[in-house]
Amino acid sequence: MPASILEEVHDLLEVALNRKKATLLDCPSCGSVHVAQVLGDNGGISYVCTACGHSWS
């Protein structure tokens, strides 16, 4: 258990930063993080960049 609230906050910030890096998805075309997940025609998952319009799966 942390000895102070500052240690607790520090630990939580580390977890949040690691989670953010793990879930970020960048557009392979322009590098934007403005990406939407969409369902494909065959039920697969595809992605569309809302910045440049590039799509991929």
TrEMBL record:
InterPro entries: FdhE-like_sf. SUPFAM superfamilies: FdhE-like. This is IS1 family transposase.
